[in-house]
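Give me structure tokens for this 179-residue protein.
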Amino acid sequence: MPLKDLLFGFKGRIRRRDWWLWGIAVAVAWTVTTGAIGGALLGMSWSTGFLGGAGLPRGWTFTAYGVVSFAPLLWIQAALAAKRAHDRNHGAALAVSLTVLAGLLAFMPEIADLVVGAALTDDQFDAFAVAINIATGAINLYLLVVLGFLDGTPGPNRFGRSPKGIGGDLPDQTAKVFS
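Here you go.
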């Protein structure tokens, strides 16, 4: 599968190994890149941009930068999730929806605080962040088990040939059309 289809397309099947390797590699590359660019654009040290912490700026600019810079990573993770779901002979809607939901939930505490004009107390913000982290953790655990640990369909399925090369090609569909 060409790299552009692997990372940006939503068709086909991939192995668990590829889901793990590409998911981790893209996440690490995104973290380093956005940490460095965010640090340079927003006047943070590289370590703060990369690791976070008390030196992170607050406000719409930083939150908007986070959401916009996260969009390509979220697209790639959703594409990988779709192909893993296909490998398990499932439609991609649930895996993609949960991947996007978990990704966007991570920004909810900051956005909520900005919407109410930073009126949340530290305790309220922390409680909301903990609730969001629990929900995100539960979603990610489900995706981890279903996409990362459960085996795909052996042989071809309705989404294509086995990425492991098991079972050969799909049967010729032409005979069904003309029979």
